[in-house]
Protein backbone atom coordinates (compact mmCIF):
# COMPACT_ATOMS: atom_id res chain seq x y z
CA UNK A 1 0.00 0.00 0.00
CA UNK A 2 1.33 3.44 -0.97
CA UNK A 3 1.35 6.05 1.78
CA UNK A 4 3.08 8.94 0.08
CA UNK A 5 5.90 9.76 -2.28
CA UNK A 6 8.09 12.82 -2.78
CA UNK A 7 10.34 13.79 -5.67
CA UNK A 8 12.43 16.71 -6.88
CA UNK A 9 14.50 17.85 -9.85
CA UNK A 10 12.94 15.66 -12.49
CA UNK A 11 12.00 17.16 -15.88
CA UNK A 12 9.60 20.06 -15.09
CA UNK A 13 9.62 19.31 -11.34
CA UNK A 14 12.16 21.58 -9.66
CA UNK A 15 11.51 21.77 -5.92
CA UNK A 16 10.19 18.84 -3.93
CA UNK A 17 6.54 17.92 -4.35
CA UNK A 18 4.67 15.29 -2.35
CA UNK A 19 1.67 13.17 -3.31
CA UNK A 20 0.09 11.99 -0.09
CA UNK A 21 -2.52 9.25 0.31
CA UNK A 22 -3.01 10.12 3.98
CA UNK A 23 -6.33 11.88 4.49
CA UNK A 24 -6.67 15.45 5.60
CA UNK A 25 -8.91 16.24 8.57
CA UNK A 26 -12.19 16.89 6.72
CA UNK A 27 -15.33 16.40 8.77
CA UNK A 28 -17.95 17.98 6.51
CA UNK A 29 -21.20 16.28 5.59
CA UNK A 30 -20.03 15.82 1.99
CA UNK A 31 -16.82 14.11 3.10
CA UNK A 32 -18.72 11.78 5.44
CA UNK A 33 -20.97 10.76 2.56
CA UNK A 34 -17.84 9.70 0.65
CA UNK A 35 -16.81 7.11 3.22
CA UNK A 36 -16.14 4.56 0.44
CA UNK A 37 -13.37 6.82 -0.89
CA UNK A 38 -11.13 6.02 2.08
CA UNK A 39 -9.95 2.98 4.01
CA UNK A 40 -8.41 2.42 7.42
CA UNK A 41 -5.09 0.67 8.03
CA UNK A 42 -3.42 0.43 11.44
CA UNK A 43 -5.93 2.91 12.79
CA UNK A 44 -5.11 5.57 10.16
CA UNK A 45 -7.23 6.76 7.22
CA UNK A 46 -5.95 6.66 3.64
CA UNK A 47 -7.32 7.75 0.26
CA UNK A 48 -8.21 5.12 -2.31
CA UNK A 49 -7.91 7.52 -5.25
CA UNK A 50 -6.15 10.75 -6.15
CA UNK A 51 -6.83 12.60 -9.41
CA UNK A 52 -4.40 15.13 -10.88
CA UNK A 53 -5.79 17.81 -13.21
CA UNK A 54 -4.16 20.71 -15.03
CA UNK A 55 -3.30 22.18 -18.43
CA UNK A 56 -1.02 20.54 -20.96
CA UNK A 57 2.70 20.85 -20.17
CA UNK A 58 2.00 21.70 -16.52
CA UNK A 59 3.76 18.60 -15.16
CA UNK A 60 1.02 15.98 -14.65
CA UNK A 61 2.86 13.44 -16.75
CA UNK A 62 6.19 14.36 -15.14
CA UNK A 63 4.85 13.07 -11.83
CA UNK A 64 3.89 9.73 -13.38
CA UNK A 65 7.17 9.54 -15.32
CA UNK A 66 9.11 10.22 -12.12
CA UNK A 67 7.36 7.34 -10.37
CA UNK A 68 7.95 5.07 -13.36
CA UNK A 69 11.65 6.01 -13.40
CA UNK A 70 11.88 5.40 -9.65
CA UNK A 71 10.32 1.94 -9.98
CA UNK A 72 12.46 0.98 -12.98
CA UNK A 73 15.63 2.05 -11.20
CA UNK A 74 14.74 -0.06 -8.17
CA UNK A 75 13.84 -3.09 -10.27
CA UNK A 76 16.57 -2.99 -12.92
CA UNK A 77 19.58 -0.91 -11.84
CA UNK A 78 21.43 -4.11 -10.88
CA UNK A 79 21.70 -4.73 -14.66
CA UNK A 80 23.58 -1.48 -15.30
CA UNK A 81 27.02 -1.78 -16.85
CA UNK A 82 29.90 0.55 -16.06
CA UNK A 83 29.34 3.88 -17.76
CA UNK A 84 25.57 3.44 -18.09
CA UNK A 85 23.63 6.72 -17.87
CA UNK A 86 20.25 7.01 -16.17
CA UNK A 87 17.51 7.83 -18.64
CA UNK A 88 16.00 11.06 -17.32
CA UNK A 89 16.61 14.80 -17.36
CA UNK A 90 16.79 17.07 -14.31
CA UNK A 91 15.18 20.52 -14.32
CA UNK A 92 17.21 22.47 -16.89
CA UNK A 93 17.01 26.01 -15.49
CA UNK A 94 18.60 27.78 -12.51
CA UNK A 95 21.57 25.41 -12.37
CA UNK A 96 19.45 22.42 -11.33
CA UNK A 97 20.93 20.27 -14.13
CA UNK A 98 24.08 20.12 -11.97
CA UNK A 99 22.19 19.01 -8.86
CA UNK A 100 21.02 15.54 -7.87
CA UNK A 101 17.43 14.36 -8.19
CA UNK A 102 15.66 12.82 -5.19
CA UNK A 103 12.94 10.24 -4.67
CA UNK A 104 11.29 9.01 -1.47
CA UNK A 105 8.46 6.50 -1.11
CA UNK A 106 6.63 5.45 2.05
CA UNK A 107 4.62 2.23 1.84
CA UNK A 108 3.31 -0.74 3.79
CA UNK A 109 4.42 -4.23 2.84
CA UNK A 110 3.59 -7.32 4.90
CA UNK A 111 1.98 -5.04 7.52
CA UNK A 112 5.24 -3.11 8.08
CA UNK A 113 5.67 0.55 7.17
CA UNK A 114 8.86 1.42 5.26
CA UNK A 115 10.42 4.63 4.00
CA UNK A 116 12.82 4.16 1.09
CA UNK A 117 14.75 7.05 -0.48
CA UNK A 118 17.54 7.64 -2.96
CA UNK A 119 19.13 10.50 -4.87
CA UNK A 120 21.18 10.40 -8.05
CA UNK A 121 22.62 12.29 -10.96
CA UNK A 122 22.42 11.00 -14.51
CA UNK A 123 25.77 9.26 -13.96
CA UNK A 124 25.62 7.78 -10.45
CA UNK A 125 23.78 7.15 -7.20
CA UNK A 126 24.51 9.83 -4.58
CA UNK A 127 22.64 8.51 -1.55
CA UNK A 128 20.21 5.77 -0.51
CA UNK A 129 18.43 4.83 2.71
CA UNK A 130 15.83 2.45 4.11
CA UNK A 131 13.93 2.98 7.37
CA UNK A 132 10.98 1.24 8.94
CA UNK A 133 8.50 1.99 11.73
CA UNK A 134 8.47 -0.61 14.53
CA UNK A 135 6.38 1.91 16.50
CA UNK A 136 5.67 5.61 16.16
CA UNK A 137 9.33 6.48 15.51
CA UNK A 138 11.27 5.31 12.49
CA UNK A 139 14.34 3.11 12.81
CA UNK A 140 17.26 2.77 10.42
CA UNK A 141 17.92 -0.36 8.37
CA UNK A 142 20.71 1.12 6.25
CA UNK A 143 22.04 4.38 4.84
CA UNK A 144 24.40 5.09 1.97
CA UNK A 145 26.24 8.31 1.16
CA UNK A 146 28.73 8.17 -1.69
CA UNK A 147 30.09 11.63 -0.85
CA UNK A 148 31.50 10.91 2.61
CA UNK A 149 34.39 8.64 1.66
CA UNK A 150 35.78 6.01 -0.68
CA UNK A 151 35.67 2.84 1.41
CA UNK A 152 32.42 0.92 1.67
CA UNK A 153 32.49 1.08 5.47
CA UNK A 154 32.59 4.88 5.18
CA UNK A 155 29.82 5.05 2.60
CA UNK A 156 27.41 2.52 4.17
CA UNK A 157 25.93 2.21 7.63
CA UNK A 158 23.88 -0.87 8.57
CA UNK A 159 21.75 -1.58 11.60
CA UNK A 160 22.43 -5.05 12.96
CA UNK A 161 20.18 -8.02 12.32
CA UNK A 162 18.32 -6.95 9.17
CA UNK A 163 20.55 -8.05 6.30
CA UNK A 164 22.88 -11.04 6.09
CA UNK A 165 26.48 -10.02 5.27
CA UNK A 166 25.45 -6.57 4.00
CA UNK A 167 28.99 -5.54 3.08
CA UNK A 168 29.21 -8.48 0.66
CA UNK A 169 26.33 -6.81 -1.17
CA UNK A 170 27.85 -3.34 -0.82
CA UNK A 171 31.12 -4.54 -2.33
CA UNK A 172 29.15 -5.82 -5.33
CA UNK A 173 27.16 -2.60 -5.73
CA UNK A 174 28.53 -0.13 -8.27
CA UNK A 175 28.04 3.64 -8.27
CA UNK A 176 25.17 3.34 -10.79
CA UNK A 177 23.31 0.56 -8.96
CA UNK A 178 20.90 0.81 -6.05
CA UNK A 179 21.91 -1.31 -3.07
CA UNK A 180 18.34 -2.61 -2.62
CA UNK A 181 18.27 -3.78 -6.24
CA UNK A 182 21.58 -5.63 -5.89
CA UNK A 183 20.67 -7.08 -2.48
CA UNK A 184 17.44 -8.54 -3.84
CA UNK A 185 19.33 -10.26 -6.65
CA UNK A 186 21.77 -11.61 -4.06
CA UNK A 187 18.86 -13.25 -2.22
CA UNK A 188 18.74 -11.02 0.86
CA UNK A 189 15.30 -11.62 2.33
CA UNK A 190 14.41 -8.11 3.49
CA UNK A 191 15.61 -6.62 0.21
CA UNK A 192 13.32 -9.04 -1.66
CA UNK A 193 10.37 -7.86 0.46
CA UNK A 194 11.06 -4.27 -0.64
CA UNK A 195 11.75 -5.30 -4.23
CA UNK A 196 8.52 -7.30 -4.48
CA UNK A 197 6.42 -4.33 -3.43
CA UNK A 198 7.54 -2.48 -6.55
CA UNK A 199 7.38 -5.59 -8.72
CA UNK A 200 4.07 -7.13 -7.66
CA UNK A 201 2.04 -4.79 -5.46
CA UNK A 202 2.22 -1.52 -7.30
CA UNK A 203 1.88 -0.88 -11.03
CA UNK A 204 2.82 2.08 -13.21
CA UNK A 205 0.62 2.21 -16.28
CA UNK A 206 -1.57 -0.51 -17.75
CA UNK A 207 0.38 -3.66 -18.68
CA UNK A 208 0.30 -4.57 -22.34
CA UNK A 209 -2.52 -7.02 -22.93
CA UNK A 210 -0.33 -9.12 -25.20
CA UNK A 211 1.81 -10.39 -22.30
CA UNK A 212 1.68 -13.67 -20.40
CA UNK A 213 0.75 -11.64 -17.31
CA UNK A 214 -2.34 -10.34 -19.12
CA UNK A 215 -3.26 -13.84 -20.27
CA UNK A 216 -3.04 -15.25 -16.74
CA UNK A 217 -5.07 -12.31 -15.39
CA UNK A 218 -7.73 -12.90 -18.02
CA UNK A 219 -8.03 -16.62 -17.29
CA UNK A 220 -8.28 -15.91 -13.55
CA UNK A 221 -10.88 -13.14 -13.85
CA UNK A 222 -12.79 -13.86 -17.06
CA UNK A 223 -16.28 -14.02 -15.55
CA UNK A 224 -15.71 -10.93 -13.41
CA UNK A 225 -14.35 -9.13 -16.47
CA UNK A 226 -17.43 -9.96 -18.55
CA UNK A 227 -19.76 -8.79 -15.79
CA UNK A 228 -17.78 -5.57 -15.41
CA UNK A 229 -17.92 -4.95 -19.17
CA UNK A 230 -21.67 -5.41 -19.11
CA UNK A 231 -21.94 -3.00 -16.17
CA UNK A 232 -19.94 -0.56 -18.30
CA UNK A 233 -22.67 -0.84 -20.98
CA UNK A 234 -20.75 -3.05 -23.39
CA UNK A 235 -22.62 -5.54 -25.58
CA UNK A 236 -19.68 -8.01 -25.46
CA UNK A 237 -21.02 -11.29 -24.05
CA UNK A 238 -17.92 -13.49 -24.31
CA UNK A 239 -14.16 -13.26 -24.79
CA UNK A 240 -11.61 -15.93 -25.51
CA UNK A 241 -7.84 -15.81 -25.69
CA UNK A 242 -5.63 -17.60 -28.16
CA UNK A 243 -1.85 -17.77 -28.44
CA UNK A 244 -0.70 -18.32 -32.00
CA UNK A 245 2.67 -18.85 -33.63
CA UNK A 246 3.18 -16.85 -36.79
CA UNK A 247 6.03 -16.43 -39.24
CA UNK A 248 7.44 -12.92 -39.44
CA UNK A 249 10.29 -11.76 -41.66
CA UNK A 250 13.62 -10.88 -40.10
CA UNK A 251 14.74 -7.43 -41.27
CA UNK A 252 17.30 -8.01 -44.02
CA UNK A 253 20.97 -7.40 -43.43
CA UNK A 254 22.64 -5.29 -46.12
CA UNK A 255 25.75 -6.59 -47.84
CA UNK A 256 28.24 -3.98 -49.05
CA UNK A 257 29.32 -4.85 -52.59
CA UNK A 258 31.47 -2.10 -54.00
CA UNK A 259 29.53 1.12 -53.50
CA UNK A 260 26.14 -0.62 -53.42
CA UNK A 261 24.31 -2.00 -50.37
CA UNK A 262 22.50 -5.16 -51.42
CA UNK A 263 19.85 -6.66 -49.07
CA UNK A 264 20.48 -10.26 -48.10
CA UNK A 265 17.86 -12.93 -48.72
CA UNK A 266 15.10 -12.35 -46.13
CA UNK A 267 14.62 -15.08 -43.52
CA UNK A 268 11.60 -15.94 -41.40
CA UNK A 269 11.30 -16.43 -37.65
CA UNK A 270 8.55 -17.76 -35.39
CA UNK A 271 6.79 -15.34 -33.07
CA UNK A 272 4.03 -16.05 -30.55
CA UNK A 273 1.21 -13.53 -30.49
CA UNK A 274 -1.74 -13.20 -28.12
CA UNK A 275 -5.19 -12.70 -29.61
CA UNK A 276 -8.29 -11.81 -27.63
CA UNK A 277 -11.48 -12.62 -29.51
CA UNK A 278 -14.75 -10.96 -28.58
CA UNK A 279 -18.35 -12.09 -29.15
CA UNK A 280 -21.20 -9.60 -29.25
CA UNK A 281 -24.82 -10.01 -28.23
CA UNK A 282 -26.14 -9.73 -31.80
CA UNK A 283 -24.50 -12.94 -33.03
CA UNK A 284 -22.50 -15.28 -30.79
CA UNK A 285 -21.06 -17.19 -33.74
CA UNK A 286 -19.04 -14.26 -35.06
CA UNK A 287 -15.72 -13.37 -33.44
CA UNK A 288 -13.93 -10.01 -33.49
CA UNK A 289 -10.22 -9.47 -32.97
CA UNK A 290 -9.89 -7.11 -30.01
CA UNK A 291 -6.81 -5.27 -31.30
CA UNK A 292 -7.84 -4.74 -34.91
CA UNK A 293 -11.64 -4.79 -34.94
CA UNK A 294 -12.77 -3.16 -31.70
CA UNK A 295 -12.77 0.56 -30.89
CA UNK A 296 -9.99 2.31 -29.02
CA UNK A 297 -12.43 2.82 -26.15
CA UNK A 298 -13.20 -0.90 -25.95
CA UNK A 299 -9.49 -1.77 -25.95
CA UNK A 300 -8.85 0.83 -23.23
CA UNK A 301 -11.70 -0.29 -20.97
CA UNK A 302 -10.72 -3.95 -21.41
CA UNK A 303 -7.07 -3.20 -20.56
CA UNK A 304 -8.01 -1.13 -17.52
CA UNK A 305 -10.53 -3.64 -16.22
CA UNK A 306 -8.08 -6.49 -16.65
CA UNK A 307 -5.48 -4.98 -14.33
CA UNK A 308 -8.03 -3.23 -12.05
CA UNK A 309 -9.69 -6.50 -11.13
CA UNK A 310 -6.33 -7.74 -9.87
CA UNK A 311 -5.66 -4.41 -8.11
CA UNK A 312 -9.10 -4.26 -6.47
CA UNK A 313 -9.24 -7.91 -5.41
CA UNK A 314 -5.76 -7.90 -3.89
CA UNK A 315 -5.39 -4.39 -2.47
CA UNK A 316 -2.70 -3.21 -4.89
CA UNK A 317 -1.86 0.24 -6.26
CA UNK A 318 -2.19 1.46 -9.85
CA UNK A 319 -0.72 4.69 -11.23
CA UNK A 320 -1.96 5.71 -14.70
CA UNK A 321 -1.40 8.76 -16.88
CA UNK A 322 -4.61 9.87 -18.67
CA UNK A 323 -6.41 6.71 -17.61
CA UNK A 324 -9.65 7.78 -19.31
CA UNK A 325 -8.22 8.41 -22.77
CA UNK A 326 -10.79 7.28 -25.39
CA UNK A 327 -13.37 6.67 -22.65
CA UNK A 328 -16.77 8.32 -22.19
CA UNK A 329 -16.87 10.34 -18.96
CA UNK A 330 -19.37 7.89 -17.41
CA UNK A 331 -16.98 5.00 -18.09
CA UNK A 332 -14.19 6.96 -16.44
CA UNK A 333 -16.41 7.39 -13.38
CA UNK A 334 -17.21 3.65 -13.48
CA UNK A 335 -13.47 2.86 -13.30
CA UNK A 336 -13.02 5.17 -10.32
CA UNK A 337 -16.06 3.68 -8.59
CA UNK A 338 -14.56 0.20 -8.95
CA UNK A 339 -11.64 1.33 -6.81
CA UNK A 340 -13.93 3.06 -4.32
CA UNK A 341 -15.95 -0.16 -4.05
CA UNK A 342 -12.83 -2.17 -3.20
CA UNK A 343 -11.56 -2.81 0.30
CA UNK A 344 -8.18 -1.08 0.03
CA UNK A 345 -7.08 -0.70 -3.61
CA UNK A 346 -5.46 2.55 -4.73
CA UNK A 347 -5.53 4.52 -7.97
CA UNK A 348 -3.49 7.60 -8.82
CA UNK A 349 -4.48 9.08 -12.17
CA UNK A 350 -4.12 12.16 -14.35
CA UNK A 351 -7.01 13.41 -16.45
CA UNK A 352 -8.44 16.29 -18.47
CA UNK A 353 -12.00 15.15 -17.68
CA UNK A 354 -13.41 18.10 -15.74
CA UNK A 355 -16.57 16.14 -14.89
CA UNK A 356 -14.45 14.39 -12.26
CA UNK A 357 -13.69 17.66 -10.47
CA UNK A 358 -16.74 17.23 -8.28
CA UNK A 359 -16.87 17.24 -4.48
CA UNK A 360 -19.87 14.93 -4.67
CA UNK A 361 -17.58 12.29 -6.19
CA UNK A 362 -14.24 13.09 -4.55
CA UNK A 363 -13.09 14.57 -1.26
CA UNK A 364 -11.20 17.86 -1.54
CA UNK A 365 -7.91 16.11 -0.67
CA UNK A 366 -8.44 13.70 -3.59
CA UNK A 367 -8.58 16.46 -6.21
CA UNK A 368 -5.11 17.78 -7.05
CA UNK A 369 -3.80 20.26 -9.59
CA UNK A 370 -0.60 21.04 -11.44
CA UNK A 371 0.31 24.44 -12.79
CA UNK A 372 3.37 25.91 -14.50
CA UNK A 373 5.05 28.57 -12.34
CA UNK A 374 6.85 31.62 -13.69
CA UNK A 375 10.21 29.87 -13.43
CA UNK A 376 8.82 27.07 -15.72
CA UNK A 377 8.66 24.54 -12.89
CA UNK A 378 5.65 22.49 -11.80
CA UNK A 379 3.48 23.61 -8.90
CA UNK A 380 1.42 20.89 -7.19
CA UNK A 381 -1.43 21.39 -4.72
CA UNK A 382 -4.88 20.07 -3.83
CA UNK A 383 -8.36 21.55 -3.63
CA UNK A 384 -8.03 21.19 0.14
CA UNK A 385 -5.36 23.92 0.07
CA UNK A 386 -7.98 26.49 -0.93
CA UNK A 387 -9.40 27.30 2.48
CA UNK A 388 -12.00 29.68 1.04
CA UNK A 389 -13.57 26.94 -1.08
CA UNK A 390 -16.85 25.69 0.34
CA UNK A 391 -18.32 22.33 -0.60
CA UNK A 392 -21.60 23.87 -1.80
CA UNK A 393 -19.60 25.53 -4.60
CA UNK A 394 -19.20 24.10 -8.11
CA UNK A 395 -15.59 22.87 -8.21
CA UNK A 396 -15.65 22.11 -11.95
CA UNK A 397 -16.94 25.59 -12.77
CA UNK A 398 -14.34 27.15 -10.52
CA UNK A 399 -11.60 25.14 -12.24
CA UNK A 400 -12.73 26.19 -15.73
CA UNK A 401 -12.88 29.81 -14.61
CA UNK A 402 -9.26 29.60 -13.51
CA UNK A 403 -9.95 29.89 -9.80
CA UNK A 404 -7.42 27.15 -8.99
CA UNK A 405 -4.80 28.43 -11.50
CA UNK A 406 -4.65 25.03 -13.21
CA UNK A 407 -6.41 25.79 -16.50
CA UNK A 408 -4.74 27.01 -19.72
CA UNK A 409 -5.13 30.69 -20.51
CA UNK A 410 -5.50 30.88 -24.28
CA UNK A 411 -6.51 33.55 -26.72
CA UNK A 412 -8.92 31.37 -28.66
CA UNK A 413 -11.56 33.68 -30.13
CA UNK A 414 -12.25 33.37 -33.86
CA UNK A 415 -11.17 36.98 -34.43
CA UNK A 416 -7.82 36.41 -32.71
CA UNK A 417 -7.18 33.26 -34.76
CA UNK A 418 -8.09 35.09 -38.00
CA UNK A 419 -5.54 37.72 -37.00
CA UNK A 420 -2.95 34.97 -36.55
CA UNK A 421 -3.54 33.76 -40.11
CA UNK A 422 -3.19 37.30 -41.49
CA UNK A 423 0.20 37.84 -39.86
Automatic annotation (TrEMBL):
SUPFAM superfamilies found in the cross-reference section: P-loop containing nucleoside triphosphate hydrolases (SSF52540)
Gene3D superfamilies in the record: P-loop containing nucleotide triphosphate hydrolases (3.40.50.300)
InterPro entries (UniProt xref): ATPase_AAA_core, P-loop_NTPase
Annotated coiled-coil segments of the chain: none
Pfam families with a match to the protein in the record: AAA_21
Domain of life: Bacteria
A GO term, aspect molecular function: ATP hydrolysis activity
Domain ATPase AAA-type core span(s) in chain numbering: 51-358
Protein name: ATPase AAA-type core domain-containing protein
Amino acid sequence: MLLKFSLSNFFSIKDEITVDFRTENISTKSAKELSDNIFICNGKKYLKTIGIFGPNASGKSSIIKALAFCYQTILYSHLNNNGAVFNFMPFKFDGYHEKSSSFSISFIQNEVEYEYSFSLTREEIVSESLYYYPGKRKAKIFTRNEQVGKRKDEIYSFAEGYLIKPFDVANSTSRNTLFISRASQMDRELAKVIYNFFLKNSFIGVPKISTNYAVSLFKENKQLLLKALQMADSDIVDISVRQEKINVPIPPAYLQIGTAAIPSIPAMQHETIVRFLTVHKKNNSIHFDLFSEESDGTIQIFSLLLVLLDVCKNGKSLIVDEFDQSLHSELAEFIVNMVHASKNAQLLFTSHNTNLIDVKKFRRDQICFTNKKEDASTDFYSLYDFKDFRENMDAEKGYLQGRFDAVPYTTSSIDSIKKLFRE
